[in-house]
Amino acid sequence: xxxxxxxxxxxxxxxxxxxxxxxxxxxxxxxxxxxxxxxxxxxxxxxxxxxxxxxxxxxxxxxxxxxxxxxxxxxxxxxxxxxxxxxxxxxxxxxxxxxxxxxxxxxxxxxxxxxxxxxxxxxxxxxxxxxxxxxxxxxxxxxxxxxxxxxxxxxxxxxxxxxxxxxxxxxxxxxxxxxxxxxxxxxxxxxxxxxxxxxxxxxxxxxxxxxxxxxxxxxxxxxxxxxxxxxxxxxxxxx
Length: 239
Ligand SMILES: Nc1ncnc2c1ncn2[C@@H]1O[C@H](COP(=O)(O)OP(=O)(O)O)[C@@H](O)[C@H]1O
Ligand SMILES: [Mg+2]
Description:
Elements: E1 3-7, E2 11-15, E3 21-26, E4 29-32, E5 37-40, H1 44-61, E6 68-73, E7 76-80, E8 83-84, E9 87-94, H2 97-103, E10 110-120, H3 132-137, H4 143-166, E11 169-180, E12 186-189, E13 197-201, H5 211-214, H6 220-238
Antiparallel strand pairs: 1-2, 2-3, 3-7, 4-5, 6-7, 8-11, 9-10, 9-11, 11-12, 11-13
Bound molecules: adenosine-5'-diphosphate and magnesium ion.
The site of magnesium ion (MG) has 3 residues, from loops.
């Protein structure tokens, strides 16, 4: 019997008959301000899942280990069940969002090198910043684990920055989550969608990510569909 393990802010995680496999359902819902703002958007789940599946396929093809198994419907995937690290790995190529407000910077400044930040994943605590020494002292991950995960993040940035550029978008920043499989391997888990990254149109600087919802700039589903279309076109040309 399938059992609902967890309802998050964007997805539901269902246990399947196989203890090593989860079914992920992408919901037609968006949240901001750590869940304080929440709304329904028809078609958002399918668009976010569509983008995430394309990106995960691309990363797998380029040697990144991930939890992805296969899609089962327009809003559902099967993934390998992981023991998640309660960490968010954020990579920033351009100043935006909290990084701009925290340091009093203008959004849009290109960083001389990518900034890497880790946050402790806790809705109760508002996902506080965490450094390596606290991560080690709290036994959240080892130095070797962190090196491995940041290594994957750097490779992902190196792959996705040019992919999005070809699709007419600047990859401003993104958040990744990792987990450990039962055999001990660390894999990229969760999702990659405009819920967890910033994409700006290269020509117009138009926002093509969840900021359109946070800042009430445009329709969320239409925006995600636009990103999905652009990625589909570029990937079709590559194959
Ligand atoms: N392969 C996996 N195995 C176990 N848990 C996962 C896996 N991939 C993602 N998760 C977790 O499932 C949840 C996904 O739902 P989401 O709506 O994104 O939640 P949240 O509101 O916590 O971000 C997250 O807590 C994420 O860490
Ligand atoms: Mg999430």
